[in-house]
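4.2 Preliminary Data

To establish feasibility before requesting continued support, the project team ran the inverse folding procedure on a target of 358 residues. The structure was first converted into the token representation described in Section 3, and no sequence information of any kind was made available to the design step. The complete token record follows.
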């Protein structure tokens, strides 16, 4: 086992937990024991005439001082660990974490890479800077015994250090509908693999959208029309869309959430071509719970648009239709002229376009 700086946190938290549980157990035995013993000893059959007691200074001082000392000792037991948890070691790798109904976004500020899975370099302190764009959330990584609230308008943080491996990440703020669904993974990689991960993500993020067709064509043996890495797309969908639209696009998990299996022509507000869905994802639908997903890269939105369209369109004609829709998207937004940074997607043009109506 690696020697991790944050192993001390694990030991302190577990130590405090066990110590306090044992202390409470002992106190419970003493108190409940006395209760039962007195009930027996002073039962009316044995002790028919109750005594009137008017205070006892000695006793009162004793039962004030002893519990105060116990409480102070409990504070010290917790405080040791608390200090470790609050003190981030120098040179920690920073990840920005945003909680949003109902998913996590992890941003690596040096590279601008964002992901819904928390990738970190192993064996190095990681500082998570927490924020929330709507309600309270709480980032919880049980394996490393760290948990901290994300509070809108307040900067909070936590730190840990991970061994190579995969761990659960939860939202522990159980005061609303779907925090329990904000489940993702912490994946700690050796530094070299982590660097490769960042590079891969940067390529995706800053790739011109036209590169996606290449990926599409290369992988198109049988799976014509699916964009890039299907597992990645499914993971994106599970993270950002499933909680409202359902694992199979059946919809209805929150009120009004569109079923992607509906007859599209009759029911969809914004139309069902890839550019239509792409626009829905970029702008959201005002006044509904369908938010803008402009925190996702254009590639991610594009891939999701394909995936969503795939729920109602099956068969080989799909690729043809998608190809045509894709050409339209590229033309409409001049995506082929955009050398790299997709974040500069011409959103104004899209808004003007929408204002014109269907
Ligand atoms: Cu939450």
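Position-by-position output of the design step:
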């Amino acid at each position: 086992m690696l020697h991790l700086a944050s192993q001390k946190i694990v030991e302190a938290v577990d130590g405090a937990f066990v110590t306090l549980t044992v202390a409470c157990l002992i106190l419970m035995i003493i108190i409940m024991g006395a209760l039962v013993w007195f009930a027996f000893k002073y039962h009316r059959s044995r002790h028919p005439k109750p005594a009137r007691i008017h205070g006892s200074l000695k006793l009162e001082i004793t039962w004030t001082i002893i519990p105060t000392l116990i409480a102070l000792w409990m504070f010290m037991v917790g405080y040791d660990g608390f200090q470790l948890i609050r003190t981030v070691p120098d040179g920690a790798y920073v990840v920005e974490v945003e909680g949003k109904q109902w998913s996590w976004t992890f941003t690596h500020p040096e590279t601008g890479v964002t992901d819904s899975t928390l990738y970190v370099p192993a064996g190095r302190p990681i500082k998570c800077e927490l924020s929330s764009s709507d309600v309270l959330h709480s980032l919880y990584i049980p394996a490393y015994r760290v948990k901290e609230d994300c509070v809108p308008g307040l900067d909070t943080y936590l730190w840990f250090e991970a061994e190579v491996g995969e761990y659960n990440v939860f939202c522990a703020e159980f005061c609303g509908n779907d925090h329990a669904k904000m489940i993702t993974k912490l994946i700690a990689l050796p530094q070299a693999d982590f660097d490769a991960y960042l590079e891969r993500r940067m390529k995706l993020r800053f790739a011109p959208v036209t590169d996606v067709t290449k990926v599409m064509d290369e992988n198109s043996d049988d799976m014509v029309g699916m964009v890039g890495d299907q597992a990645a797309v499914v993971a994106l969908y599970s993270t950002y869309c499933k909680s409202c639209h359902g694992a199979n696009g059946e919809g209805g998990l929150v009120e009004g959430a569109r079923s992607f299996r509906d007859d599209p022509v009759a029911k969809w507000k914004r139309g069902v071509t890839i550019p239509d869905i792409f626009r829905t994802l970029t702008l959201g639908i005002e006044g509904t719970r369908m938010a803008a997903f402009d925190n996702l890269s254009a590639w991610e939105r594009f891939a999701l648009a394909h995936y969503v369209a795939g729920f109602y369109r099956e068969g080989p004609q799909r690729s043809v239709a998608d190809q045509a829709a894709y050409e339209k998207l590229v033309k409409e937004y001049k995506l082929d002229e955009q050398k790299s940074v997709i974040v500069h997607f011409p959103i104004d043009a899209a808004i003007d376009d929408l204002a014109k109506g269907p």
